[in-house]
From TrEMBL:
It comes from Myxococcus fulvus. This is histidine kinase. It holds the Pfam family HATPase_c. The modification 4-aspartylphosphate is found at residue 68. The keyword Transferase applies. GO terms for molecular function: phosphorelay sensor kinase activity. Keywords: Kinase, Phosphoprotein, Transferase. It comes from the Bacteria. It catalyses: ATP + protein L-histidine = ADP + protein N-phospho-L-histidine.
Length: 380
């Protein structure tokens, strides 16, 4: 391989070095020149001089195929069609590169056969590299989207399986009692022992589905806000009351620091209660069973809300990541939750024209700060 040329940044060099390009051309001079340009830029290049050889080498799954249209045995259009017809090569990145077939009809035919791009030569070296890099970026984004989808499916399946299993077991227990007791006389206590947990699991399922629906709405900017004037301090107090049992289950004490009078805000009360609930749930999960504070402060043009815990804390390099989809505040491998609470909370706050940030050090707990303008009427 030729020495790598200087590039704008080390990250780009490393990205190029990881990419393998199959260069297919039967003209020796063009094949050599194109391969050299790519190799000097840092790509790993594999060469083929015929359609048959290209089909064989494509089975090695290169990151990209540069495919000449005119080949001695099978033309590039047919090679592209066959690659798209094969299960193992149908998603390869393919770009036609031709110095002869340069008409509009040629380009349309190439794209119709499945090529991702159709470039005609001559191209300057930097123009060729820019086109290659652009296609590889698009491929990288598509792969990232597929990875995010697969991760989402895995996490969602795990989270949904737990309440579904508990629901099934409780209903099976009830059916078991019904079949063992003669007549219609089943003790009320027996029925309640199975149906009450089943109802809790149904509520949990509804919450999970609502969370997934919120993610869909946020992604398509269809999160609807019902704007009204309400007391944020009162809303915080009500959320804390609803989550008192969760606080006890986490072995923590939840303390409130709220204004004496109403802290009036123009916003969507239910959505902002969801923000408070998500922040508290996060604190219960990672607060190490130590006291937690929920605070609301009044300022002339904005209200400040914060949730503070004394738990495991968050490293600096993770403080931006945790607000992304499917991310968690901890890297300890715990798989509870969909990793969507902070993402949804931030999107709701942004929809209100506010900000959500975190201040933390590892081992010293974390404080999540919410700033909300008092007046907000614009739709999301």
């Amino acid at each position: 391989m030729e020495p790598r040329a200087e590039s704008p940044g080390r990250a780009k060099d490393e990205e190029r070095a990881r990419a393998t390009i199959l260069n297919v051309n039967d003209t020796p001079a063009v094949l050599y020149l194109t391969s050299r340009i790519l190799t000097v830029a840092g790509y790993h290049v594999v060469e083929a001089t015929s359609g048959t050889e290209a089909l064989r080498l494509a089975g090695g799954r290169p990151d990209m195929v540069l495919l000449d249209v005119h080949l001695p045995d099978i033309d590039g259009y047919e090679v592209c069609r066959r690659l798209r017809a094969r299960e193992e090569t149908r998603d390869l990145l393919i770009a036609h590169l031709s110095a002869v077939s340069v008409s509009r009809e040629d380009r349309l035919r190439g794209l119709a056969q499945g090529a991702d791009a159709y470039w005609t030569t001559p191209l300057e070296d930097d123009e060729l590299l820019a086109n290659v890099e652009a296609l590889l970026r698009l491929q990288s984004r598509a792969q990232a989207a597929v990875h995010a989808r697969d991760e989402f499916m895995s996490i969602a399946a795990h989270e949904l399986r737990t309440p579904l299993t508990a629901l099934r077991l409780n209903l099976e227990r009830l059916v078991h009692h019904l079949t063992r007791v003669p007549g219609d006389m089943v003790a009320r206590r027996t029925v309640e022992a199975s149906t009450t947990p089943a109802l809790r699991q149904l509520v949990r399922l509804q919450q999970l589905l609502d969370t997934l629906l919120d993610v869909s709405r946020v992604g398509s900017r269809k999160l609807r806000l019902d704007i009204e004037v309400f007391d944020l301090a009162e809303a915080a107090r009500e959320v804390a009351g609803r989550l008192a049992m969760s606080a006890r289950a986490a072995g923590t004490e939840l303390s409130l620091a709220l204004p004496l009078g109403p802290a009036l805000l123009m916003g969507d009360r239910l959505r902002l209660e969801q923000v408070i609930s998500n922040l508290l749930a996060n604190a219960f999960r990672y607060g190490d069973s130590k006291p937690i504070w929920l605070t609301v402060e009044e300022h002339p043009d904005a209200l400040w809300l914060s949730v503070t815990d004394q738990g495991i804390g968050i490293a600096k390099q993770d403080q931006a990541r945790i607000f992304n989809r499917f991310e968690r505040a901890s890297s300890t491998g715990r798989a509870d939750g969909l990793g969507l609470g902070l993402f949804i909370a931030r999107e709701i706050v942004i929809a209100h024209g506010g900000t959500l940030s975190v201040e933390s050090e590892p081992g010293q707990g974390a404080t999540f700060h919410v700033t909300l303008p008092r007046h907000r009427t614009a739709a999301y």
